[in-house]
Amino acid sequence: xxxxxxxxxxxxxxxxxxxxxxxxxxxxxxxxxxxxxxxxxxxxxxxxxxxxxxxxxxxxxxxxxxxxxxxxxxxxxxxxxxxxxxxxxxxxxxxxxxxxxxxxxxxxxxxxxxxxxxxxxxxxxxxxxxxxxxxxxxxxxxxxxxxxxxxxxxxxxxxxxxxxxxxxxxxxxxxxxxxxxxxxxxxxxxxxxxxxxxxxxxxxxxxxxxxxxxxxxxxxxxxxxxxxxxxxxxxxxxxxxxxxxxxxxxxxxxxxxxxxxxxxxxxxxxxxxxxxxxxxxxxxxxxxxxxxxxxxxxxxxxxxxxxxxxxxxxxxxxxxxxxxxxxxxxxxxxxxxxxxxxxxxxxxxxxxxxxxxxxxxxxxxxxxxxxxxxxxxxxxxxxxxxxxxxxxxxxxxxxxxxxxxxxx
Length: 408
Known about the structure:
Blueprint: H1 2-8, E1 18-20, E2 23-25, H2 35-54, E3 74-75, E4 78-79, E5 123-124, E6 133-138, H3 156-162, E7 175-178, E8 186-191, H4 212-241, H5 246-272, H6 290-318, H7 322-350, H8 355-375, H9 382-386, H10 393-406
Antiparallel strand pairs: 1-2, 3-4, 5-6, 6-8, 7-8
Helix pairs in contact: 2-6, 2-7, 2-10, 4-5, 5-7, 6-7, 6-8
């Protein structure tokens, strides 16, 4: 951990409707708010969503007991059919054991055509820079159910086997089909990052698969938090060069400091489970236009990091490990403020970009929303649900649905 510390070194605004009671409420109705105040409003929304989903509902004033038995022979007037005994012996009479004439057997050569001697074992391909995806090559093809249109996401259950060779294994973050190679080799891009901000140039993140699901997960989270330090520092410099308001520049720098603390906290959890934390790697990128900055913010901030803040809020309440829950309570508060910052930044760039650029940014955000929804179809390791409080597949999709509805 000391080595990790040494290496680290020392919104939303008018576009966001929030839930207050049963009505949509708008911040502008109560005057201008400081970013910290707006952060509390988004945090309130997240806690309301978590509370609503955490309360089991089985109809008004009713309860359901799973596995309960009843002595009643009917259910609401409908006869209950008695079970059928499938093991009653059937007398089929004597068997005819006479000789069977099979005729002459053709023992001539069989033309099986050319034999494909290629190795069908799936293997890792060239890394996909600037993504949290690892490429898996399937020389002998993929199941018909996975042969969706190129670029589309594949069912989460299929990702479990298609992404087995990756460093995370099991396709826990979802996967999508890419265009096959000329020789017919299928390519599958498997998401290997936790939900969070992924800055341009970020190389695929390595975890610690050998340490088990918990260690591997928190090692990846720590590395992604570490990468966010670079992302926010670069964003602050870019915003200053674009003439952005001082408040946005200052908030980007503050967010970088938050991510340093998050890296240390998540790194400590990873080490508890025997997992080393690896430094993130970036490829070189040139100077970016304001539209490029806005596109990344729309996808990584307004969609992924916003949902990441909601997931952290859920985990802070659901984690059975008190050390994890305590760390995530602080992180959830910070990440909620980062989400507010992302939406505030979008509101500012909307007033600066031309109409065409604004349309492209908004379209990218819509596409990112659809992509993340598809990623959430993947199963979640039971130990992450039980110990770390990660929402399972159904809960994650319910959280995401509630969030996107409230922020629409």
